[in-house]
Each structure stands twice: as structure tokens, then as C-alpha cells.
């Protein structure tokens, strides 16, 4: 079990007693391992999730589980949220049982969801009215990096609050980068994910061409790509072809990881931003259409690397 990774449970308990409580809301594929790393670093965690079953594992590790975000805000003055979309963030912060109903003055609120930068700015204004500080800190690295504590955080907010935020985020990530005022973290993340989607589609198309049409061995082709100029994260760390790599969703029927529906959402955010700023993003637009098609064809809950499987099925293979 996970808690066996602690070298000494008593030491962790003593460490917890010396650190103040941290609230964590949203215990999905990313939030769960992130909260675990806070516990591992000695922080007592107070958590909540709309799905109670998501809380059981964390509760076994010593976290206190409460019913609503408001309840968490009543107990903790540092809260991290990790939620699927803009509407979820708005509800968790400003809804009838939201954080801002019981937030303490001076609280630090860090949102690691990937959402519309405009919503981050709205939440910051709402938090400021209640005497709290809101920062956006979306992440990159996926479930593997969340588990190993090697995420990259892109942080937007008041620069004078960055040190306090970094103290917590460094427990969950290897890189914590200050981007500017509220919303700039989201801006950086949206740009990253648009490139990620384009790169994954390119990797999937390349692997499909080499394997299906040109008769190359999948592992050999991946090896050559990864020692050549075509190398990218999707080829060397998160390969979409089943059997090429261990520990990635493609070897588990594309279960877990980063859902296609979430990638589609992020690409939609990029498209909206591009439209509003009159910026041409031709490949980003095509990527968005491909992932929207995948959602309509039953891939919504599969990892976004399932675009490889989608391409093969489109060919009738």
C-alpha cells in the first residue's frame, strides 16, 4: 500500500503536528496523488470531493474528509483546488456551499485547474472582496508527474504571495514558475496543451504510418524517433502505441491519464482565446476538431493518446 513508502510513520506524524492544515478540493486522477504528496511532506490535509468514494484512500492516510468546500474553508486558511472545468471552479468557490461562504480573511486560495483565464480573474476579484488571495496555478506533467511529485506549476497572481504558494506547490512539483498576474498561469497552460495535442496527433500519425503502411517494428520506430530530430514528449515519455512503453495509458487500453474530454475542453479554451485575440492557430483548430470527433465516437473518457487507436479505427483496421 502507498503508506509503506513513508520511511517512518511516527516521524511523519510529528512533522504534521508542526505544520498548519491545508485544504484540498478535487480528488480525481490528478488531485488524489497531489494531496498524497502534501501528506508525505508532513502537511495535515483537510479534503473534500463531490464523489465521496474518491476520498477513501486519502482518509486512510490520515486526511480529514469534510462534506463541502465551505466546510474546508472554515478549517483551513490555505486551500488548493484541482477541478475539471470553469463551471466546477465557479461552483466550488462561489456556489451555495463554496469556499467563499466561509473563507477566512488572509486565506491563500490556489487553483490548479485548467480553466478560462477570465474565470480565474473573476475568482480573484470575488476572493479579494472576502479578504482572501486567489492564485491560478495550473499544472503540466500528467498523472505520472503528479504521483512522483514532479509536476510543473505555472503560477499567476500577486508576486508578493508567490513565496507562500511555492512552499506548498514545491511539495507536489519539481518546477514552480511565476508567470505574472492572475490568469497568466492559465494562459501558459492553454498554450502548452495546444502544443501537446498537436504533438500527440503528429506522433500517432507518424507511428501509424510507419507501423501499418511501412512495416516498421513499433519499438524500433519509437527508438529511432527518440534519438532523432522528431523526438517529443508524446514519443519518448507518453507513447500512444500499445506495447512500446510501460506505465502509460496505451498499455492499459487508454484508461487513466488525461481524458480526451479534458483535452478537448483545453483546446476549446485555446480556440476561444485565439478568436478573441484574432490569432491564427490552424493546427490548433484541426487538433480541436479531431478531439471533438473522438468524443463523439466514444473516446471521451479514454486518455487523449487514444488518438492512435482512433486513427487506426478510422482506417478500418
Helix % is: 40-55%
DSSP summary: helix tally: 14
How many strands, what sense, and barrel or not for the largest sheet? 6 strands, parallel
Query: Which word captures the global form?
Result: globular
**Approximately how much beta-strand content do the residues carry?**
5-15%
SSE order, as H and E?
A: HEHEHEHEHEHEEHEHEHHHHHH
Q: For the largest sheet, list the strands in their spatial order.
A: 3-2-1-4-5-6
Number of strands: 9
Low-confidence stretches: 1-17
Distance between the termini: 40 Å
Structural Rg? 20 Å
Q: Please state the average pLDDT score.
A: 93
Structural class: alpha/beta
Spell out the blueprint of helices and strands.
Blueprint: H1 9-18, E1 22-25, H2 31-40, E2 45-48, H3 56-60, E3 64-65, H4 69-75, E4 78-81, H5 86-94, E5 108-111, H6 117-129, E6 133-136, E7 139-140, H7 142-148, E8 151-156, H8 162-169, E9 173-180, H9 184-213, H10 218-226, H11 233-236, H12 260-276, H13 282-296, H14 307-314
Parallel strand pairs: 1-2, 1-4, 2-3, 4-5, 5-6, 8-9
Antiparallel strand pairs: 7-8
Structural write-up:
Pfam families: NAD_binding_11, NAD_binding_2. The chain contains 14 helices and 9 strands. The longest helix has 30 residues. Helix 5 runs parallel beside helix 6, helix 9 crosses helix 14 and helix 12 packs antiparallel against helix 13. 48% of the residues lie in helices and 12% in strands. The N terminus is likely disordered. It is globular. The protein has a 6-stranded parallel β-sheet, with helices on both faces. It starts with 8 loop residues before the first helix and ends with a helix. By secondary structure, the protein is α/β, with parallel strands linked by helices.
